[in-house]
Amino acid sequence: MKYLSDNLVYPNELKQQNISGQVLARIHIDATGEVKKVEILKSLHPLLDKEVIRVIMKSPKWKPAKQNGKNVPMYISQPVTF
């Protein structure tokens, strides 16, 4: 969450239009903790969707899920509020 708040940039043109709300992203993280894919499940505005995808794709490695002691791929849903 700290990474997201430190790196998200709210486009100025959307600030002027008072567009705010929440984008919901689905993130696919592989067994090594690398982000492989980001899908937008709930869109607010195309520019905000692009910003969420940009920041999540550049995020550092995540802690992968474990099953029976082995790292496994996982999907998580991440809400992002603007």
Question: What is the assigned CATH homologous superfamily?
Answer: TonB
Helix content: 25-40%
Residues in β-strands, percent: 35-45%
Strand order, sheet with most strands: 2-1-5
CATH class: Alpha Beta
The low-confidence parts are none
Q: What is the makeup of the main sheet?
A: 3 strands, antiparallel
Could you give the count of β-strands? 5
Order of helices and strands: HHEEHEEE
What is the mean pLDDT?
94
Cα(first) to Cα(last) distance is 13 Å
* DSSP helical segment count: 3
User: Under CATH, the topology is which?
Assistant: TolA/TonB C-terminal domain
Structural class given helices, strands, pairing? alpha+beta
What best-fitting shape do the alpha-carbon axes yield?
elongated
In the CATH classification, which architecture applies?
2-Layer Sandwich
How many domains make up the coordinates? 1
Backbone CA Rg: 14 Å
